[in-house]
Amino acid sequence: MSEEPKNIPQFTHLHLHTEYSLLDGANKIKALAKKVKEQGMTSVAMTDHGNMFGTIDFYNTMKKEGIKPIIGMEAYVHNQEELGDKSVRQRFHLCLYAKNEVGYKNLMYLSSQAYINGFYYYPRINWDLLKDNSEGLICSSACLQGEVNWNLNLSERNLKFGAKGYDEAKRVALKYKDVFGDDFYLELMRHGIGDQYRIDKQIIQISQETDIKIIATNDTHYTVQKDADAHEAFMCIAMNKLYDDPNRLRHSVHEFYVKSPEQMAELFADIPEALENTQEIADKCNLEIKLGDPTPPNFKFARVRAAESNIEMPHPDVEYSLENDIVLFIEESKRGLEERLKIVPEEKHEEYRDRLKVEMDIINSMKFPGYMLIVWDFVDAAKEMGIPVGPGRGSAAGSLVAYSLGITDIDPMPYGLLFERFLNPERISMPDIDMDFCQARRQEILDYVVEKYGRVNVAQIITFGKLLAKGVIRDVARVLDMPYSKADAMAKLIPDELGIDLKGSYEKEPKIAALLESDPQAKRTWEYALALEGLNRNAGTHAAGVVISNEPLWQKTPLFKPTGLDTLATQYSGKYVEDVDLIKFDFLGLKTLTVIEEALQLVERRHGKRINFVEENIEDKEVYDYIGTGETLGLFQIESAGMQDLAKKLKPNGFEDIIAMLALYRPGPMESGMLDDFVERKHGRAEITYAFPELEPILKPTYGVIVYQE
Q1: CA pair distance 499, 507, nearest whole angstrom
Q2: Which residues contact 323 (CB under 8 A, 6 or more apart)?
Q3: Which fold is adopted by the domain 29-223+258-284?
Q4: For the chain, is the Cβ count within 10 Å smaller at the N or the C terminus?
């Protein structure tokens, strides 16, 4: 006889902390998705502490596994009138979920305001802000730190800070019901904690007296029960405490894992509707986040810049217009090229103008003139402010438009650089211009952009430091009170390989297995480290990435304010900013530019001449003779010991040789013998051959060696 089909109770986890609840949530999103699916659940929520960092990662991963993602946040709420009030530290927890796009945008706005204006120990919102931005949101009363539960739990500590008991708890519940109506729910948790048990019946009583529905939740912090001890170690890393410290904050139970619907049904057997109501919330939440296909930006100041140059605009009354951008872009590119042609032989002018037209047509057809104008504007501003700007790097150096607009100072024509490396109509992708600025003054150009576009329209990009193989061993060993020398020796057993993980290390290094067998403390450290490896440790900002938007960024990404800095950052990492319709600009700080600028000033002071590298002869024999001595310390990118050695061997006699040096001094060409072959051919000690005659005009500058992808 076949078995009866298993009847799984309908249940959705609505109170859940992912790895983005930094140093607290240990639910790795991929493992979580598999667990939820395995247990027969069809939806799951994320409610990270005060942030939405993991939204897109969570959304994409759950969708991929066929699970409905519910985007939420466990907010910190205070009741003072001013959002930034710092008269009291008290704040209450509250879970919020986005029902639809309106709710999602409100959630992003609330999370942004919490960091920008409400931060005090934690990113906080206040009651007034929540009330004014409650549309499209579902709300639940959270854990023991929620305002309803906090008032019910008359512990000595809560009484000291003003908990008022049942009537106040009921008043608070009704206050939330007034704003959220049937979208406010009371959470009931049963982890076996005394304080929860004491208020259980009172929560049910409030529900009966107010008609506010109850939901069963499990405050999930890790995926499987056996990871409870590792999670305790994780909390110790966050608090900088020892695992065995009797006075540290600790979880008294090991119940904060992803329980199955059957386990939850058993826990709430007396109130089955608490499980059914979680499904009611899941059914109400139908958010679809539009991802991919980013819209190229318009240049906000096209009309202003056009007026400065007496250019007529097709739409003088429209702030954001592709047609305006195209007219300004074409005019400025043409003017810029004519300026550049002053140092180009006249017989080549038409070739340059033809190439410019081709590039402009492609940029306009792909709707990127606004992007080019934004970069042109801030590079122009940097030069006006006397901030040294790099001559250009990466694929943008292949663009004659970039050269004409003064974005780069590299003429792509003599070097046969391809525009298609920068923009290719057959491969739709965002243009990427990396701009180098003098490191000492990079902040000034960021300030210019912030002032020009508005503080909440410009942000750096968040990054997450992770607990990686060696680091997680050291962190766990520290909280387990392992002697430093022992922890150091253990961490050093991890092979020095890029991207290696603990599992890979165990397979490659037999000494690890021997250590774990002989030392129980090392074994425990390893087990906890395995569970915690890869989790997010802290948030920082990308060294160069900046997004600029025509509207407040919280329309597309919530914002984060790094501690102690005035700048803002996106809450979504660089991997997802394009997905949410934002374009990244790279502002790199380069110390070499500062050194060059100081050298130029010294030359000007002593010799009365300002050197312009665009006009200088870059094939000056004395320069290459000097490089050939190998004394290249201080020369950008050719100053390492290996490069000094190569310079002596190669004895470059022109700029093409320097370009080849940079291309060949990489692991692949060096290991294959290509670098040695290049040197030997250059000096006539090896024959220069071509696979077939047609290659000769292409490969002649590199002595028959295929150095470049082009």
Answers
A1: 15
A2: 314, 315
A3: TIM Barrel (3.20.20)
A4: N
By C-alpha distance, which of 489, 480, 30 is closest to 234?
Answer: 480
One-letter amino acid of 505 = S
pTM: 0.88
SS (H, E, C) 511-525: HHHHHHHHCHHHHHH
CB-CB contact of 343 with 615 (8 Å): yes
Cα atoms found within 13 Å of the Cα of residue 536, Cβ hemisphere only = 21
What are the residue ranges spanned by the domains of the chain? 29-223+258-284, 302-463+540-591, 617-702
CB-CB neighbours of 201 under 10 Å = 10
pLDDT in tens, 4-31: 445 778 999 999 999 999 888 889 999 9
- The pLDDT, as a whole number, for residue 53 is 96
Cα angle for residues 179, 208, 130 (degrees, 5° grid): 15
CA 159 to chain centre: 42
| Rg of the chain, C-alpha, whole Å | 31
What gap in Å lies between CA 356 and CA 348, rounded to an integer?
13
Q: Can you give the pLDDT at residue 710?
A: 60
User: Could you tell me how many residues make up the chain?
Assistant: 710
Quick: pLDDT tens for 56-88.
999 999 999 999 999 999 999 999 999 989 998
Tell me which amino acid residue 50 is. Answer: G
- Sign of the C-alpha dihedral, residues 373, 377, 382, 383? positive
Rounded-to-integer distance, Cα 604 and Cα 155, Å: 75
Q: What is the 3-state secondary structure (H, E, C) of 596-663?
A: HHHHHHHHHHHHCCCCCCCCCCCCCHHHHHHHCCCCCCCCCCCCCHHHHHHHHHHCCCCHHHHHHHHH
Biggest CA-to-CA distance, the chain? 100
- The bridge status of strand 92-98 relative to strand 137-140 is antiparallel
Both tokens of 627, joined, read 């490089």
Place of tokens 């529900």: 207
